[in-house]
Amino acid sequence: MLDVNGRRYALPKQPTVVVCVDGCEPDYLAQAVAGGHMPWMKRTLAKGTALIAECVVPSFTNPNNLSIVTGAPPSVHGICGNYLYDAETGTEVMMNDPKWLRAPTILAALAEAGKRCAVITAKDKLRKLLGKGMRGICFSSEKADAVNLAENGIADVMGLVKRPLPDVYSAELSEFVFAAGVALMRRGQADVMYLSTTDYIQHKHAPGTPGANAFYTMMDNYLGALDEMGCVIALTADHGMNAKTKMDGSPDVIYLQDRLDGWLGAGKARTILPITDPYVVHHGALGSFATVYLAEEDLSQAMACIASLHGIERVLSREEAARAYELPAERIGDLVVVSERSTVLGTSAARHDLTALEVPLRSHGGVSEQRVPLILNRAINDMDEFRRWRNFDAFELALNRAQ
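^ thats the sequence. predicted structure below, dont judge the formating
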């Protein structure tokens, strides 16, 4: 058994694949299965194990992927967003550098124990974080044409997959992840594999629509192939996805920085949007979670003013948010703001370019996107029906109960 971040994990007896489907609101699966688009998933839901779990808040990509591979919440691993304000340097930075990760991963421990591990992500922003400390294969489909043996543990991924390099804003970016995973498993190059997709489709297509169903049909085919090879498969998501619009279809946005400047005066507060990453075309850097840095004497006024706005679900102090959402207190703002299901938070209207939105805005970040699937292709009979299941229980179920 391995001890990682206070939890114990057995070494796998069968090839094991943990899949994080970015933005997979459970209704995507329900609609696709009901419409006959996912025959493998339909069989798995009937004969395997199907749970509804919760992701961590903020319901963004980086915090949840790192929770899944560490088996722990952000208060343990330290990744509390895609983006944060570094108070030490006074700068806003991406949390892509492995220096921000302060807990070991299950994958690194498995590799240390002699298991062959592979990590394949859609976007390169996650690669170094997920692969920190892990000896094995680690690459992104975004940069698949630039892999090398020294840095990625593998060479010529393009030759392995035999697919063109996908555009970062495409369904093909995620399909490349699955195709590479199947190819590696067929070659017998991994005992444990972690596959992480992108939510480009989920940002653009609601559950049950042709675009969504086509994506989940593709995914179903690859999962079926892994199943046929005898893999234990655990599938979960980093967060859900919801429409964030007014009744006329326009984005329902609260520009928090503009509001704070009006209430307190310009320069008195700084709004940080942890959803921010290099890929903002499909969401405009608008999500349902924000943090605010400001002087202590302005806290009470700011909290009261923000809470009075239509579309705000919760306004918490730093300490309250750290307790409620299991966050590292020193890496979040003086205030944490969570908006309601149909509303997103921005900084200033002038800083968000929404001209690239081709369809009504869909996004995530709040508690309204916490519900995610947690599915295994093995029946597990000793399940605690009263347990609060989390997406970061995926490795525990896959390694300890499904082998």
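The two ends are 14 Å apart (CA to CA).
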